[in-house]
Write a structure and sequence with these properties.
It is a single chain. By secondary structure, the protein is α+β, with helices and mostly antiparallel strands. The chain is 44% helix and 19% strand. Helix 15 crosses helix 16 and helix 18 runs antiparallel to helix 19. The longest helix has 30 residues. 33% of the residues are buried.
Amino acid sequence: MHIRISTRRKGDRTYAYAQLVESYRRDDGLPAHRILASLKNLSEREIDNLRLALSASREGKAVVVAGASKQEWPTRIMANLRYLDAAVALEMWRRWDLTRLFNRLIQRPLEAVPPSAVIAALVVQRCTDPGSKLYAQRWFPRTALPELLEVDLEQFNNTRIHRVLSALDSVGEALQADLPQRYQQKEGAFAAIFMDVTDAWFEGRGPELAERDRTKEGLRNRRKIGIVLVCNQDGYPLRWKVTPGKRRDPLCMGDMLALIRQENWLGSVPLVCDRAMGQAKSVAKLVESGTRFVTACPRHEIHSYAQDLPYEPFLDLSPVGSEITVEGEVEVAAKAAADGGLHRVDDSLFVRDLGVRERVLIFERPRYEYSGAGWDPDHLEGAASFIALARIFQERLDRKEFHSRSDLAQKEGMTRARMTQIMNHLRLRDELQEAVLRGEFGYVPERLVRECIRYRSEAEQRRLLKEQAEIIGRSRPPGPPRPPRRVGREKIRVRLVAYFNPEMFVEQRALLAQHRQRIEDFIADLNRRLRSPHGQQDKDAVRVQVHNAIARWKFLKVYQVQIRAAQDNPSGRSHWQVHLELNEAEWRRRIRYAGFVLLVAHPDLPHSAEHIVGLYRQKDTVEKDFQTIKDTVKLRPFYHHTDPKVRAHVTLCMLALLLERTIDRRLKRSGLKTTAAAAFEELQTCHLNVISSYPGSEPVYVATEATQEQRAILRSLRMKELIDTEEVAGRIHPRPIP
């Protein structure tokens, strides 16, 4: 093809116009031209440009326009949306297939926006820019999530968020039942399971569960709630529970233990708990549960388990713990540990395996009493025990012994939620209740009854009991047999492992010495003030001050206090003076186990002593989870003031924790030395720019050019497609531009 200029004369004027002409051969083989198009009213520059373009096309070259001096429709950037950090969190959400899970759990086909999309947006916000639900409504339009989730801006509103949070709370149990199976299917069986308790407090009134108490940070008289968390070795949340604020940690973990001990994923996997479950009463609960546990007993109970720990070499050491002396003091303590026969694992760990020993524990009888309801809960197991217990509770309510289930729950020392769970067993058909009590379906776990009562017909409930009870029985991993229910004082076998940390020894001994010095300094200052003419006090007032000062550090048994009358020689005036006498035996008893930790474990645990110590020291996994949901995911402050909304908020934080932990694990596995929180901070500068070329045109979405650090993060997570131009265009469904 080429451009041909044709001329035409009309009267006294000559007209020139361009034609687009193509060469071809006629049927007889002769060359000829045919006009493809007539191009009228073109300037000489336009004709030259067309000739240049046709010439470049024939030679396979590209034409570059140097730039026009004036554009009729300038390109405009219509929006700048937060993109890459939210896209990464959402992609991790999709890789866990959580959208399908919530679509199954919350079936609302008539909803304009699926609840799963709203939950996904709120969880992504927890990961990238946590804030209140009101802030979420302002934050959502400024991100690319409306395009990525295909949610209209007007439909993400306060009413819908509240409705979805209520739905999320209603499916909390089903969600927690599904997640562990999902982890195992994707990443294999668990190596260890960890359990711990934290708290969160409210500025205002808080929900009904909130109670005034001292927080773990030391804040007094705050309305707070407790949160129990069970996670695996990777920090993935398995179970969580919101508890009343004043409920003590051992009781909270005991309730959680009762909930999870029948779960298939627990099996023979070691359950690691901190010292809160190391008290004798809590160890009895662990033994009764049949789980393979590892915990640490409080220091004051060590002597009741083992009297042969080599603490004598450390009694004469007096570490100061200052920056100048600490290094040398740690070396001296390490040498004393080696001389005492402890096995050296590394510079900060010395271990002694004490083997399996016997210890008398007291197993408490449940607070409820058998009332002749036909079945004794103490003689039953699983759901059968709770059906019998629910019948007892119902009889007591029918006899008007209590005004409500709440009063009964308070009397029995359990939460109202747990009381409701137990009473729900009576929703099973009466004939099936009797069959479960008689053992016709074998061992029936409590959670199976919770699934049965979702169905109203007896046929559906019976079918599920028949099918699922056998499946659960066959699929339960091999583990220690469930021991018979114990009551009263019994001698039991436990595995004991002791370890010693020289640095911890120096820190603890130095702290105890500081407490002693503060008490003695206070008494010296008090005696000085009592000698002053203006410091006269009566004996009772002096006794109260001394008692409070010593009790503050729990040293009442360490000192014997005498308050004597003394006389000032120059004036002859009498006054009181305080004399402290150190109880050497009590002081040596107080310091003897500094630096030692005694682990109490299930006797059938096959691990070596070093491995058991390693398991216990890995309990910082759950502590890091709590740190993440408090600091990164921003569990606090709470902006909800009802129990269901608070529980839903905690669930959102746990789902965000799952995404954070997964990203942490992938980054660590790839060798990239960064955390999920740091990665989100790095990714937030990559935005999605909405560009419009002319009015009425469809907008074009272009991501900001990614930095080298952002590309490295995406490579580690295998998400490079998130910044690929074609992939971005394929994922985006443009929003209307005003």
